[in-house]
Every structure is written in C-alpha cells, then in structure tokens.
Amino acid sequence: MKDHKDRKGSIATKLALAGAGAGLGMFAIYGVINASFIGGLIGLNIAGVLSGFPVESALLSRGLVALGMLAGVLIAALMFVSAGATAGWLLGKLAEVVGHLSNLKRMVDGKDKTLAIVRH
C-alpha cells in the first residue's frame, strides 16, 4: 500500500500545479492590462483625495498611481493563480475519490484477490 505521507506524486498535487500554471497563463492573457488599469484608477482616486482634483503630475501623485497599479496586478495574479490551483486540486481529489471507489467496487465484486485474503 502506498504511504500517505508522500504526497508529491498524488493526482491532486499534480493537478493543483497544472491549475496554478493555467491560472498564471490566464492572468497573463486576460488579467495584466485590466488589473493595472483598475489599480491605476484607484491610485489616481487616492491621489485626488489627498491633493485635490484635478490631480497634478507631481511625484506623490505618480507614485500613488504606480503603487495602485502594482497592487492591482499583484492582487489579480494572486486571485488567478489561487483559483486555478484550487480548481485543479479539487479535480484531483475528485479523481482520487473516484479511483478509490472503483477499487472498492472491484474488491466487493470479488475481482480483486486482496479482499479474499482478508476474509480468511
């Protein structure tokens, strides 16, 4: 029987890594531009609240917009990657459960000899 402490080779772990990669790819395609735009708008609004509207192009305003853009990109990347990894892990766990159920059904039907040894 496989040792349950060694989880490096489990289906759930492999699919979680694949899901994280897929989430990173989706972020690169769909998330970077939108996240930087929304984060920049948030930074621009913060700069407007602090220094008044219309926002002048001072160093503080530019820094707040840049920090807003950076925060937006990092938060969006975190969301895409964690959602992909979670979806992959859940699919992996579902596959493991289905595999265990099919093994159990085979044992109950008598097609697997390990249950016959346990019965005697």
Can you walk through the features of this model?
The chain is mainly α and 120 residues long. It has a domain at 11-90. It is built from three helices and no strands. The chain is rod-shaped.
SSE arrangement:
Elements: H1 11-51, H2 59-109, H3 113-119
Helix pairs in contact: 1-2
The number of strands is 0
Q: Give the helix/strand class.
A: mainly alpha
- How far do the termini sit from each other? 19 Å
- Proportion of beta-strand residues: under 5%
Helix content: over 70%
Average pLDDT works out at 87
Unreliable spans are none
What descriptive keywords fit this protein?
mainly alpha, 82% helix, 120 residues
Task: Quickly describe the structure.
This protein has a domain of 80 residues.
